[in-house]
Every structure is written in structure tokens, then in C-alpha cells.
């Protein structure tokens, strides 16, 4: 049993209708196998955003699968994975039928006893993530086509309020009284903590559904990045470039310095590793505005990994890389050489840990670095050779406004980026 190669876009039918048909065909085929006493075989294409063979003619980051995974009921782990996938598929079917949206966290708390498995780990949502990815591959679609979004904040979710999200696991809680308070409060806290996870400011105006984001009227005021990116339209901008910053602290520093007043730009932060809406929204802006994009991250292995996530995509979402990656992005800093160029004090330079070194060594093997951005790979090698790392904020040790008034403008004007 394998997902049919059917275009998700159709002029004659809405996306939801096509997906509902695919879901029906998939479940009917599964049911037919079971009723005829045949063990179903589910073939799932596998994709990857990179490999560790830089000299090979690989298909990484392409639309071509690099292999198939076979799920069978004869293996216990596969059987449980299929149960989880069918549970998620049932929720997705209802979302599509009712034209509602839900987050993966909401889905997780709908059947926590199923999704927790045997380990009973409250914070483990990896099975739901895997099920959603498997469904996207089988149905040949993106995650947003399933009406599944990354965040579950009451501010922007239209299908459930925060209270309704917490009550969705009521049946489970009634049967697990010892854990009811833990689940309820954990869910509410985790839900509320996701409000405004991703931020944008600058010279841009757009709408998402009925809501208008008018950043231009106050360019240094933070707005949330839209969750329903497919509904974004009427994009207007007078910006000269887009600046992506790794950390919220740097974003707030730029906002406090009124950076966008003297620099006509758009500033976005994913607050660390960017989620799907942030990456999709950035991809949308680049496609529509055709502006140069620069990325500012810490000079450490994790900052570099975040940079590559924006440009090349992540391994987990490799099947949807073409909608998420931004190959146009340029690395603005911080470079290893910046510590000497801008006289960063020694007390701000931190030694690489053993874990840092292992991460760098693993990243150096990624095929796309040597093939597409060899200069990035040289800088990563330099980080390993020097054995030190530093944060973006270390560049502002002598003046709080150094990033806004000197570092970023001089880098862009002098084209000191990679």
C-alpha cells in the first residue's frame, strides 16, 4: 500500500476534498487487507536533506525519495506506529471535514494514552510528529494541507480556546485521576507559553484571513509571525532587505534601538530553531518581495545549525524541503574572525565542549556544505580549529547599540557576508 502520486493542487476540486478522498482510499485498502486476512504492507517514501557522502551524486534535498520504509503488522513497533497514525488520520479527517485547524500539541492531548506508549513520558510528542510526517508523505501533501499547525496558542487558534484545548483530554483524565492535575496544568502552561513564539517587525504590511498586520505604521513594534501562512495575502513592503536573527534577545535589542527607523528592512526571529510557519512565511516573503535575506546567528555549532536549517531545511521535514528552505539566504555573522576583528574580550570567548566538537565534526560531513557553500564549511572548520565560541551579544560588550549602529549596517554596506 503506497501513497498515490496525485497533485495536491487542483483547479476543479478543493485541496480538502482531494485529501479526504485519499484518506478514504487508504483506509479502505487497509480494511480490505485485514478482512481478507492479508497482512498490510505500508510503503513510506523516505527523503533526506543531506547525507555524509560529499563526493557522491546524491538526491538530497530533491523531490526524489532516497528509499522506502516498509511498515508491517508483524512487528510490534510497526503495529503501534500504525495505530498512532490512524488515530491522527481520524483527527485530520475531522479537521478537513469541519474546516478547522489544530496543533500537533492539541492532537497529542486528544489520545495521550495512545501517544504516550509504554514510557509514559509527558513531554514526548515525537510519535505524533512522526505520524503527521508519515501521513504527509503518504498523501503527497504539506503539513498545513492537513489543517495541522505548529503552535497551540489561544491567540491565533480558531478551532479551540485554551480552556477547550485542556478539556480535550477529559476522557483520559477521568480514567487517570492521579495524573489529571498534571496533564491539565501542563497542557495549559505549554499552550499559553507558545503565544508570540515568532516575531516580525519592520517595513511590511499584510493580511492573514481577516486580520491585518500593519507593521509599517510602527516599524519597531513586534508582531507575531502568522500561523496560517497559506492565508497571507496583500503583502506590501518598502523594505530593502530581510534580516533573520537567531535570538529574541537580539531582536529586542534592535527594537529598543529603533533599528528599523534608520534601516528600511524587515526583521524576523524564530527564537532559536525556526518552526514550520516561520520558515514558510520567510519563503513566502522571499518569493513575493524578491529582497536579499541575511541571517545573524551565534558563532557556535547550534547557531550554524540554525543557519543551515533556514537555507537547506531540516532532516525531519526533508519531504517538504522545497516549501521550507531559503537558498537565497546569506550568512551575515557572527564569523569566527569577528572576535578578533571587533576585539571581543577573552572572557566572552567560551571553549567548545566535547558535545560542541562532536556536533561540528558531524556537520562538516554534510554533503551540501562542500557542494553549495564551501566557504561556510571553512568557517565551521575554523570554529573547530580555534576551539572557541561566542554569542552575538559579545559583539556589543563596548556599546549596547553596536549591533544596530555599526556591526549590521557596515556588514551589509560592505557586503561582508557569505
UniProtKB/TrEMBL annotation:
CC cofactor: Mg(2+)
EC number annotated for this UniProt entry: 5.6.2.2
Catalytic center residues: 109 (o-(5'-phospho-dna)-tyrosine intermediate)
Protein keywords: DNA-binding, Isomerase, Magnesium, Membrane, Metal-binding, Nucleus, Topoisomerase, Transmembrane, Transmembrane helix
SUPFAM superfamilies associated with the record: DNA topoisomerase IV, alpha subunit
Annotated Topoisomerase 6 subunit A/Spo11 TOPRIM domain residues: 241-412
Predominant location: nucleus
Pfam families the record matches: TOP6A-Spo11_Toprim, TP6A_N
GO molecular function: ATP binding; DNA binding; DNA topoisomerase type II (double strand cut, ATP-hydrolyzing) activity; metal ion binding
Domain Spo11/DNA topoisomerase VI subunit A N-terminal: 81-148
Keyword Metal-binding assigned: yes
InterPro entries: Spo11/TopoVI_A, Spo11/TopoVI_A_N, Spo11/TopoVI_A_sf, TopoVI_A, TOPRIM_Topo6A/Spo11, WH-like_DNA-bd_sf
Sequence similarity: Belongs to the TOP6A family.
Protein name listed in UniProt: DNA topoisomerase (ATP-hydrolyzing)
Species this protein is from: Cajanus cajan
Amino acid at each position: 500500500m503506497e501513497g498515490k502520486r496525485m497533485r495536491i493542487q487542483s483547479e476543479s476540486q478543493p485541496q480538502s476534498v482531494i485529501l479526504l478522498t485519499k484518506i478514504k482510499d487508504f483506509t479502505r485498502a487497509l480494511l480490505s487487507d485485514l478482512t481478507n486476512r492479508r497482512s498490510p504492507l505500508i510503503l513510506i517514501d523516505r527523503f533526506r536533506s543531506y547525507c555524509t557522502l560529499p563526493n557522491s551524486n546524491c538526491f538530497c534535498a530533491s523531490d526524489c525519495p532516497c528509499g522506502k520504509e516498509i511498515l508491517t503488522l508483524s512487528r510490534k513497533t510497526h503495529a503501534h506506529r500504525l495505530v498512532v497514525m490512524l488515530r491522527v488520520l481520524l483527527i485530520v479527517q475531522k479537521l478537513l471535514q469541519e474546516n478547522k485547524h489544530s496543533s500537533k500539541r492539541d492532537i497529542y492531548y486528544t489520545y495521550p494514552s495512545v501517544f504516550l506508549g509504554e514510557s509514559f513520558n509527558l513531554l514526548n510528542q515525537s510519535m505524533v510528529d512522526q505520524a503527521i510526517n508519515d501521513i504527509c508523505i503518504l498523501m503527497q501533501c504539506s503539513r498545513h494541507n492537513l489543517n495541522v499547525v505548529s503552535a497551540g496558542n489561544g491567540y491565533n487558534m480558531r478551532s479551540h480556546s485554551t480552556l477547550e484545548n485542556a478539556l480535550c483530554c477529559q476522557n483520559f483524565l477521568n480514567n487517570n485521576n492521579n495524573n489529571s492535575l498534571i496533564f491539565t496544568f501542563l497542557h495549559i502552561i505549554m499552550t499559553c507559553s507558545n503565544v508570540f513564539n515568532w516575531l516580525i517587525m519592520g517595513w511590511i504590511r499584510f493580511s492573514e484571513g481577516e486580520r491585518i498586520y500593519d507593521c509599517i505604521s510602527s516599524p519597531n513594534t513586534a508582531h507575531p509571525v502568522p500561523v496560517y501562512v497559506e492565508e497571507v495575502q496583500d503583502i506590501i513592503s518598502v523594505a530593502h532587505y530581510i534580516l533573520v536573527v537567531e535570538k529574541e534577545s537580539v531582536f529586542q535589542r534592535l527594537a529598543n534601538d529603533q533599528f528599523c527607523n534608520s534601516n528600511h528592512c524587515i526583521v524576523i526571529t524564530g527564537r532559536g530553531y525556526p518552526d514550520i510557519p516561520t520558515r514558510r512565511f520567510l519563503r513566502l516573503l522571499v518569493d513575493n518581495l524578491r529582497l536579499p535575506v541575511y541571517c545573524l546567528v551565534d558563532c557556535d555549532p547550534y547557531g550554524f545549525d540554525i543557519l543551515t536549517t533556514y537555507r537547506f531545511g531540516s532532516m525531519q521535514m526533508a519531504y517538504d524541503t522545497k516549501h521550507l528552505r531559503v537558498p537565497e539566504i546569506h550568512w551575515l555573522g557572527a564569523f569566527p574572525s569577528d572576535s578578533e576583528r571587533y576585539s571581543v574580550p577573552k572572557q566572552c570567548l567560551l571553549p567548545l565542549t566535547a558535545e560542541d566538537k562532536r556536533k561540528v565534526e558531524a556537520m562538516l560531513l554534510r554533503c551540501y556544505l562542500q557542494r553549495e557553500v564551501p566557504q561556510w564549511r571553512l568557517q565551521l572548520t575554523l570554529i573547530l580549529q580555534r576551539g572557541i565560541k561566542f554569542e552575538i551579544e559579545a559583539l556589543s560588550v563596548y556599546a549596547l547599540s553596536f549591533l544596530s549602529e555599526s556591526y549590521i549596517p557596515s556588514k551589509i554596506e560592505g557586503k561582508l557576508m557569505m
